[in-house]
Amino acid sequence: MKIIDIINDAASRGTTRFTFELLPPLKGEGTAGVFEAIDTLAPLDPAYINVTFHREDTRYTERPDGLLERHTVRHRPGTVGISAAIARRYGIETVPHIICGGQSLYDIEDALIDMNLLGMHNVLALRGDARKGETRFDPHPQGHSYAEGLVAQIADMNRGKYVDNDGDNGHGGYKGPAHKTNFCVGVAGYPEKHAESPNPEADIKALRRKVDAGADYIVTQMSFDNDRILDFIARARTAGITVPIVPGIKPLAVKAHLTVLPHTFHVDLPPDLVHEVERCRDNAEVRRVGIEWATQQAAGLKKAGLPVIHFYSMGRTDNIAQIVKQVF
Fold first, then answer.
1. How far apart are CA 121 and CA 104, in angstroms?
2. In the prediction, which pLDDT does 169 show?
């Protein structure tokens, strides 16, 4: 089932459902941790599950001649594979992330073809972050600089247009009618502005370009302030963006989140939340505060009539289960 249909169905029935996001297992780790996290939430009827995609890293090893040799490594490969495994095991719609970073048009097309062959027709299209150790995003020389290009490529495949769509070209290419894929495409929105955007107005314009390129719905970066989320939705509507917007929230779990989350995700933490966390004596208390804050957020967004709320789990889901049981 397409994600847009899941969202529209919840909206038509006047209900609110929840979704959550997982990381692929670390290389060599296996699926046990991922399945354990899903086992906690699967009985609570999640609308769908997102699976993140992680950029490649660079490692240097010394050769016998003393020179350094560069290697490209991925610490969390297998986004498409684990997504297919989740869908098969649980029967829950699963949304793999696809990013521009480190991938050519051909790499992206190959991943989408694999997804199509596996019967997976939902994708979240993202630009992705800069590679670790780099200060700015550097696109693949044969790839996309922005997510709108990735969205347009997926939309082209839905129309039967592939990277090399003009016949054989001497490489044994297929010359017959091109298969049309059927992807539902989600994109990211930023209630507090993308870190690289010069201002909120430019950020909304960039979001509009992604929607115009073919995005079916938007899921927001985590935000801890419902007023900002609802203001973002209002500004998007004023700009002519009519597709559904799914708000993203995250329960704080450790005191280090006070510095890690603003640095990593470029979000602000409300003063009241910071004050409560700073008063905590240990991370067990922080976890309780995080659950209480996210519960209030989820309840407020549900009351506002939003049909789907997305939770960022970072691999831990027992706190999300507590929130879901209270709100949904």
1. 21
2. 45
Quick: pLDDT tens for 65-103.
777 776 566 656 679 999 999 999 999 999 999 999 888
Q: Dump strand ranges (E) for 1-52.
A: 17-22, 49-51
Residue-averaged pLDDT of the chain: 90
Q: What residues form DSSP beta bridges with 70?
A: 60
Q: Rg (Cα) of the chain, in Å, rounded?
A: 20
Helices and strands: H and E segment counts in the chain: 11, 10
Q: What is the pLDDT of residue 274?
A: 97
Q: Where are the domains of the chain?
A: 3-327
Tell me what percent of the residues of the chain surpass a pLDDT of 90: 73
Percent of the chain with pLDDT over 70: 89
Q: How far apart are CA 310 and CA 18, in angstroms?
A: 6
Task: State which amino acid sits at residue 74.
Answer: R
DSSP state of 256: T
Q: Please report where in the chains the tokens 């495994």 appear, as a residue.
A: 85
Decide: 95 and 48 in contact? Cβ < 8 Å. yes
In whole angstroms, give the CA distance from residue 290 to residue 274: 10
A 10 A CB-CB count for 158 gives: 17
Q: What pLDDT band is residue 136 in, cutting at 50, 70 and 90?
A: confident
DSSP 122: E
What pairing do the DSSP bridges indicate for beta strands 57-62 and 68-73?
A: antiparallel
Q: How many residues does the chain have?
A: 328
Whether the pLDDT of residue 167 is over 60: the answer is no
Q: How far apart are CA 191 and CA 247, in angstroms?
A: 9
* Range 3-327: architecture per CATH: Alpha-Beta Barrel (3.20)
Q: Which helix (H) or strand (E) holds 235?
A: helix 226-238
Q: Is 35 left (phi over 0), alpha (psi -120 to 50) or beta?
A: alpha
